[in-house]
Amino acid sequence: xxxxxxxxxxxxxxxxxxxxxxxxxxxxxxxxxxxxxxxxxxxxxxxxxxxxxxxxxxxxxxxxxxxxxxxxxxxxxxxxxxxxxxxxxxxxxxxxxxxxxxxxxxxxxxxxxxxxxxxxxxxxxxxxxxxxxxxxxxxxxxxxxxxxxxxxxxxxxxxxxxxxxxxxxxxxxxxxxxxxxxxxxxxxxxxxxxxxxxxxxxxxxxxxxxxxxxxxxxxxxxxxxxxxxxxxxxxxxxxxxxxxxxxxxxxxxxxxxxxxxxxxxxxxxxxxxxxxxxxxxxxxxxxxxxxxxxxxxxxxxxxxxxxxxxxxxxxxxxxxxxxxxxxxxxxxxxxxxxxxxxxxxxxxxxxxxxxxxxxxxxxxxxxxxxxxxxxxxxxxxxxxxxxxxxxxxxxxxxxxxxxxxxxxxxxxxxxxxxxxx
Length: 421
Description:
This protein is of the alpha+beta class.
């Protein structure tokens, strides 16, 4: 077997890249082949909160998040694929308990506006009006992104993979890449558990598994994998089905993953809340009838030495903390029951920005890793930019210098684990 382009990794990055590359390729003369060792979205992507916000401090990220959000928002109309997309808005809160967060909210809101994003600075009164029952200090402010949204992460990855196949890509699900073949300073192919496959260029988008695979061919990127804990509470009882809104229709197969009999997603009870004053975020996951709560940074996340044997248990201390911070902002959740917990997987770089692009010493090897929990927000832009690189076109979908993997060839600082705001 032979493929002109091989993509390794069946998460949101790998499937989006396979789709973008396949749209530009002849499936006979220049096939795109995607390898996934387990199931689609079986790693970081399937555990993601899949929040689509644009609140960042770097214009490079703001513009990518903006452009990616437009892809998600139009995907159903353009392709007929349902991904559980819901436009619920995002509210980022800064307050006097962490004074620096107030200035951050103002600066980032202005940055978003200069990139053409609807971003509104709200005072405490306006936030309470937007989110009935919200508890905030009178000195608090918020940045409201009305177009902020969320998707069902598994459904989205499955949609990207299906679209890649429709464009002519081959997806080899359940086939593990064991090694990368190098000859004359270039990738010549990959060895899997069933075959050796030749290629002209290779994209490694394997998230937490990237470090060991790249290190096996001498590519050293200082990646660290951690396991952020997540807790869930039942959606507030006021959430009800939306009626005839076609955007909220879901196939029964999606809902069956969560044992839900209803055929429509309920309305989100409130916007996504990024609470940078108290250090947590929360999202109503209507596709699963639950509200997710997580930390806003990685400073207390335990390291993962082998993502194939991740410790899945969530501490009682974290569960108590999650409920405490959630109820302190939204007391209505005191009446709702717990709805489980899970452990995520984040792959971090020392500067909290992803490594995207060719590796200088192996020019036909493209690295796409280290997204620190921000993969869904950026995936369509990353995919388009990688497709441009593969076709030797100017990269307009993102700033290739900002993300260049070669920056890690110089000595780096220890992992600071910022959340990437």
